[in-house]
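Fold this sequence, please.
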Amino acid sequence: MAGQTGPGFDENPEAIDEHAKQMEATFDVLKQALDLSRDDPIGPDAFGLIGRLCQLSTWCGHLAGQATDTLESVVAGADYHVQAVQAWAKARRVDEESASALVKRASEVSRG
C-alpha cells in the first residue's frame, strides 16, 4: 500500500487486522461459491421436457459458465486484496512496534 494516502490508510494495526479477518471470511465464501459452480453444473434434466425443447439448459449452462468465469476473477482479486491487507497490517505493526521501541530506548538513554 506504499504511496497511498487519505482516509483509511492511517488506521491502527488492530483495525487493519480486523479488516483482514473480514476479507478472509468474504474470500472463503467466494471460494465456496466458485467451487460449487464448478462441481454442481446445471444439467439438462433440471428443466424438464419443455425446458429441453426450449434449450433452457444450453442457455443456462452458458450463463453459468460466464458466472463461473466472473467468480474466478473475483476470487483472484479477493486473494490479492487479502494478501495485500495482511502485508499492510504486518508492515504497520512492525512500524508501530519499532517506533515504540525507539521512543522507549531514547527515554532510557536520556535518563541514563
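Residues 75 and 94 are 28 Å apart (CA to CA). Confidence is low (pLDDT under 50) at residues 1-6.
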